[in-house]
Amino acid sequence: MTSTNPSASSFSKRLDGKVAIITGGASGIGAAAVRLFYENGAKVVIADIQDDLGQAIASKLGENGCYIHCDVSKEDEVINLVDSAVAKFGQLDIMYNNAGIVDGFFSGILETSKPDLERLLSVNVVGSFLGAKHAARVMIPRRNGCILFTASACVNLAGFSSHAYSITKHGIAGLAKNLSAELGQYGIRVNSVSPFAVATPICGGNSTQEEIERSNAFVNGVANLKGKTLTPEDVAQAALYLASDEAGYVSGLNLVVDGGFTVVNPSMVNAWAQFFNPNE
């Protein structure tokens, strides 16, 4: 696969000799992570339900990658995923539980149905739990490994997403922290990545170029860090760091990739500017 990452040459082989499973790896953040992990020497197993997309990416990885159909909400499919990865590559070093879905953003609690909530829970939380459980099953005997999750910046900020989505991402962040306490005794590191809004297929942000531009224009307008648009590759870079030996003593961390959005309250800054510069 041809590298699309300009920094790959200077940080090559950061995952050399490692085997990684990436759920939701056929598109969005997952696909960006597949490319980046592969460029850095990992053997990568792509797990998704988007068979055509997943197989197309896997075909570019050659003998160092493969695609396995997996609905992460179904335990038998997760078991097959993990066991197949170990059977093919002999080990599992990195489990990146990235697969997730969204509902209607900012829908109120009265508009949120129980089936909608259960659907998000089944994929986002149960899927992450099952991925971690069966990764731990094969990592504990080796007393080594790295388990990652994709959470969201909404775990640090109220009103950033729907209630159902927020519940699932808080659950993922809490699971990651709790697992780090249990699995540390086996040498297994557990961390999560929490991105700000990024245009991916699950939010309909890249169906067309026009939609991408509209989404990015809105996000850039409210973002704290100006002059930069958050991309799936940025999130994948954070995951790469946590998966690599450079983060060899990092565990229990929720790495927020949001340009400082959730630690800044712009109300005071804007009020201050208006008070002292009312004509600007």
Automatic annotation (TrEMBL):
Entry-linked PROSITE patterns: ADH_SHORT
Domain of life (superkingdom): Eukaryota
Pfam family, one: adh_short_C2
Keywords noted in UniProt: Oxidoreductase
GO molecular function: oxidoreductase activity, acting on the CH-OH group of donors, NAD or NADP as acceptor
Family designation: Belongs to the short-chain dehydrogenases/reductases (SDR) family.
Protein name according to UniProt: OLC1v1027563C1
